Amino acid sequence: MWDYSEKVLELFYNPINQGAIAHTNEPDVAVVYGEVGSIACGDALRLHLKIQESTETILDSQFQTFGCTSAIASSSALTEIIKGKTLDAALKITNKDIADFLGGLPEAKMHCSVMGQEALEAAIYKYRGIEVEHHDDDEGTLICSCFGITEPRVRRVIIENDLTTVEQVTNYVKAGGGCGSCLAGIEDILIEVQRDRTAVAARVEAAAAPLSPIQKINLIQQVLTEDVRPMLIADGGDVELYDVSGDVVQVQLKGACGSCESSTATLKGAIETRLQAQVSPELTVVAV
Amino acid sequence: MVIYLDNNATTRVAPEVLDAMLPYLSDLYGNPSSMHSFGGQVGAAIQDARAQVAKLLGAEDTEIIFTSCGSEGNNTAIQAALAAQPEKRHIVTTAVEHPAVLNVCKHLEKKGYTVTYLSVDRRGQLDLMEVEAAMTGGTALVTTMYANNETGVIFPIEQIGAIAKECGAIFHVDAVQAVGKVPINLKESTIDLLTLSGHKLHAPKGVGALYVRRGFRFRPFLLGGHQERGRRAGTHNVPGVIALGKAAELAHQHLSAVEQERQLRDSLETQLLALIPNCEVNGGGTTRLPNTTNIGFKYIEGEAILFMLNQHSICASSGSACTSGSLDPSHVLTSMGLPYTILHGSIRFSLSRFTTEDDIQQVVNVMPGIVEKLRAISPFNNDEADWLQGRDLVHSA
């Protein structure tokens, strides 16, 4: 028998916000729903949102769930968590927030909280007119054909929940829980994510020790080469390190990047975030 | 008070059984194999228990080997059958076996054996023509269950056995769910090997038996001491064996009264079907055990139903994905080709001779409310639900 928390059982036996939200002609109000899962999979959630359009605030939220005890409790929890939030704030909610609200879920039931997070995302994307088929997850290669799980979805759940084993991945998104033929593929993703984590951690650690001016310049150069340039080159741009003076990093934006006024600010921010995380939090970037 | 309707999972130890075994946990602790009368009296008690089990099965005492559980019996039987005919490399079984047979067969496939998994129809029943067609000259073993643990569906054992014999194959039957519920007479049977488990018939967990037809070239699975005439090494689980003997004796006496269980089961089914729309009996169209009913409640999920029942102290079980320990729903119900709308919401109630009319009434009282409550939450609460349209609702193999 599953060891459910009292909160899970409470929300299962007395669910809050069950049902649909009827369409309305009220001004400035939109009603939308997002859905995830299917009857074949054994669990499915249709999450309904009532949104104030001018402020992008969730006025009301209701759920319809086909699924087990923890699927119903997770859905009900989600509707409570998101009420009153703006859509941007709601998009920041992770499956962990849902599980935490419930006082934890059994490891093998974590996928119920993931289902909640995904339905929320689907509803908001739908409201914003972003075709769900075109959002990041679904562009990725299918890794688990039994449950239709893509590689980016697996990667995301590994990163957000600090997962380290294939079994955990199965518990969180079901991938690998059917025929098991993708287990080796999931293992590969875990290894990749782990490698990335170690690399970042090593840089952060290195950054923690005081750097000599030449070490600092080298590290900045390395981050630019490995993390920033590939991203820019893909968009037809490029960046070059011009000078480092104290904590001010001077860069030259090239190609498509240099000619576009609006992208300069965004790019400066993106480069700064990376350098601050991986070299020193004091760094600022200026384009010259 | 617990309303226990999960007797296909395990049963309560009958009070008489407990009384019979207790002395062997205290004063009568001798080793049955010892050469002193203190141990010898325990050895004699084991022989009595063997006779009691043999009588329930219509077998001879020497045809009974005590084991630790049903899984051990099934593993032993399959390995013994293959060892008896090493030149034959083909096994015939069914798609709906218990994992203790299914996973052994899957393992043997990796070892180079070919296995045919017979299909079942929508009722959960086998097709004898398919059994016949599956047989080859190289078929070493036909292994099927007597009755299915999830649906209670009884296979036409003697007809299957006749086909096996005709082709020179050994016939093993996993009768874990059937023993004590249907009369079995192995003297007039095609069965070579038969597995039973104690805790399904009011003995404790940790004891079982394997019937091996006299004259069968038996190779032991567990090697070591000379216990069980060299056919199963290991010091006897004496209290368990004594308990199994007593449980077998009681089951034999109770066989004639099994009709009462059937009546209670039928009453549960009839009332639930009348009170609750959109539900059906899985396996209802064919011969079944008298104590089992498996009902599919459409549009809702089994684990949620079980937790609702649990709130009323009612114990049942489900074949839904969320209860199986894996992420897939029951292989038995999937093999029957049930649509997903029923598959995930199937609940098994299994009765015993301790089940009362009051127990049944309690279930009938609460079940309609539970189904209604969960259907109110479900987005799939009718066949016309928009989310179900254009989707494949039956699992394709």
What do these coordinates show?
- The complex is a heterodimer of chains A (288) and B (397).
- Chain A has three domains: 1-130, Sufe protein. Chain: A; 135-209, Arc Repressor Mutant, subunit A (Orthogonal Bundle); 210-287, GMP Synthetase, Chain A, domain 3.
- Chain A is 51% helix and 19% strand.
- Chain A is built from twelve helices and eight strands.
- In chain A, strand 2 (43-52) and strand 3 form a beta hairpin.
- The mean pLDDT of chain A is 87.
- With 397 residues, chain B is α/β, with parallel strands linked by helices.
- Chain B folds into two domains: 3-8 and 257-381, Aspartate Aminotransferase, domain 1; 15-254, 3-Layer(aba) Sandwich (Aspartate Aminotransferase, domain 2).
- Helices cover 37% and strands 14% of the residues of chain B.
- In chain B, helix 2 (37-57) packs parallel to helix 7 and helix 8 (258-275) packs parallel to helix 12.
- The interface between A and B is medium-sized, with 31 and 30 residues.
Our measurement of the CA-to-CA distance between the termini of chain A, rounded to an integer number of angstroms, reads 64 Å
Helical proportion of chain A, percent range: 40-55%
| Low-confidence segments of chain A | none
H-E order of chain A: HEEEHHHHHEEHHHHEEHHE
The strands making up the biggest β-sheet of chain A line up spatially as: 1-2-3
Which percent band covers the strand fraction of chain B? 5-15%
Mean pLDDT reading of chain A:
87
Tally of discrete structural domains of chain A: 3
**Fourth-level CATH superfamily of the largest domain in chain B:** Type I PLP-dependent aspartate aminotransferase-like (Major domain)
Please give the CATH architecture of the largest domain in chain A.
Answer: Alpha-Beta Complex
